[in-house]
Amino acid sequence: MRPIILAALVALAAAPAFAAEKAARIAPPAQDIAAQPGASGPQTIVLAGGCFWGVQAVFQHTKGVTRAVSGYAGGTKETAQYNVVSSGDTGHAEAVAVTFDPAAISAGKILQIYFSVAHDPTQLNRQGPDSGTQYRSEIFPQTEEQRALAQRYIAELDAAKAFPQPIATKVAAAGAVFYPAEAYHQDYATLHPMQPYIMFNDAPKVANLKAMFADVYRDEPVLVRALASN
After folding, report:
1. Which CATH architecture has domain 41-225?
2. Is the dihedral of CA 37, 43, 48, 51 positive or negative?
3. What average pLDDT values come out for the chain (230 residues) when binned by 10 residues?
4. pTM for the full predicted model
């Protein structure tokens, strides 16, 4: 996603394993959204946490997630294009629409993974090497119930001082529109595992998911391309 320069490659070669990614397993929310008996259909929550390649990869490796799509949220349809969003002036954030089976994994568990391993929620308008409002930490809930859960959870984590700094994550109004990103961004971490950006910034996220959330980790990711071909 970013131009690869010699300095980055040197830093990658010299860095210890998983040095780029800070992860901390935090407590789950005190009050989750209970799966409704007999409820039909999956649920979706949209999560922004820096470059969407890594966030997508984490949730593609999470059991109970049926689809994870990279895209844009927070701006208009007209500006939902990578080359425009990259300016940082569109209101969009790079985001991932995470669709999940609430009978298999809860919204609270999704958020626990998001805060623990998918990104660093204390960074403001940046994530790792990427800076700008398009890389902000923001939750775009699709229901009022999800919005209340996210707000309560952030308050709980800040009160417990779960992180060294206050959480910078914003919570948008419920029902924000999500726009899928271009096809070449989908499944990027899986398709380009040896790309230095992926190796240094995103592969450690998936490794941390496996180490810290083994109960919901799956080796075989659910890919956008595979779903589209069915």
Report:
1. 2-Layer Sandwich (3.30)
2. positive
3. 38 41 88 76 96 98 98 98 97 98 95 98 96 98 97 98 97 97 98 96 97 97 81
4. 0.90
